[in-house]
Amino acid sequence: MMFFDPLYLLIVGPALLLSIVAQFWVKGAFNKYAQVPTVRGLSGAQVAQHIVNRAGLGVRVERVSGFLSDHYDPTARVLRLSPDVYDGITVSAVGVAAHEAGHALQHAQGYLPLQWRSALVPVTKFGSTLAWPLLMIGFLLQGMSMVGPADLFVKIGILLFSGAVLFQIVTLPVEFDASRRAVQLVTAEGIVTREEADGVKRVLNAAAMTYIAAAAAAVAQLLYFLLRAGMLRRDE
Description:
By secondary structure, this protein is mainly alpha-helical. The chain is 72% helix and 5% strand. The protein has a three-stranded mixed beta sheet with strand order 1-3-2. The model has no long low-confidence stretch (mean pLDDT 92).
């Protein structure tokens, strides 16, 4: 059974470990700079609203519950910030708010990777829901020597899971670009000092590592499924 397959731990284990480290890193960086107030004293909500208003986007900024649950909703054209970011007047709050405002700018400017990611959302939701059950059934049938049905279930499961992997990969340039925009915006607008901008970069770099780790974990799992299914073996 693949639940106890040492090959899974060998291939996917390092990526999962990286994901855990990345989560601790981003929380540590955010909490550290959440203790550092900015000189100008603007809240995350004010910073985000300033950026979207300056660009004439007509995007609303709202508070949403949760820790680091910040996100931009392109469908509703709403930028939602967690309480610590919405109300915070710290380096962390400013950095995260500007990052999410960067997504709003991407949307308004038709940033291509963001369009790709948005198009992949329904595919990813559908694939993520069905991929794991199909793969588990397929590998179970494989263990029962029911080769024909097993291969069908596994191949369909891998195909669906590939959509989720592609989503994680496309997410990388979207997030990196939003962070780049965030640093440029808060610096150019004089929202933060040079020293504070360094803190913003550290917070956003830590956040970027979580997306890298998620992509690495997804690719590693896909590689495991392909190996487990014998789809990467060379013909004799």
